[in-house]
Design a protein that fits this description.
single chain; 4-stranded antiparallel beta sheet; 2 domains; 222 residues
Amino acid sequence: MSDQLKRQAALHALDEIRDGMIVGLGTGSTAAHFIRELGRVRLQVAGIPTSEESRRLAEETGIRLTSFEENPRVDVTVDGADEVSTQLDLLKGLGAALVREKIVAQASERVVIIVDESKLVDRLGQKNVIPIEVIPFAVPRVLLLLRELGGAARVRQRDGRSFVSDNGNSIVDWNHGMIDDPAKLEKQLKSLTGVVDSGIFANVAHCVIVAGSQGVRKLQRA
């Protein structure tokens, strides 16, 4: 059922796309549905992928790709999220593409988030850890600082080894708990030397398309 809801949200996001647009292509299972559907409609757009995974999928579906060298501004980005708060702040990065996702989002005139209703929370951190991308050399120091701030922090593992992002960095998962002030914590984490960025996306989403058992609805930032 969840996968069907993700596809429904992705289909509704196509209404945001017009011929000639530069489109940011998100990462993750919901964003993958959007990329496939965008490839099927054959609109004359160019995409900037937020991960190597999304790049491969876009190439498979026939979406023309571009870069910031050619197009430094993005018309609209469509991406998923791991959590969406009532204020439309986001927690992202369980798929480890958070840095490129944030770069593309901040270059975008409009950011559209597509989720199923299970991703809605009262406050960020209610269900998930905060992913943080860290330069490998700095990992021991950043782990210490995060633990001093409170909550367990660990390096993400895959197949018994430290996970490596598309940028060649480590991902630290910080079990902070619920976040009272996402914008403040996002800046605090960014200020830690060795941290590239975090999965907190405060004040980024312009609208969130939510697919649920009662249909699809669009939440707009006030």
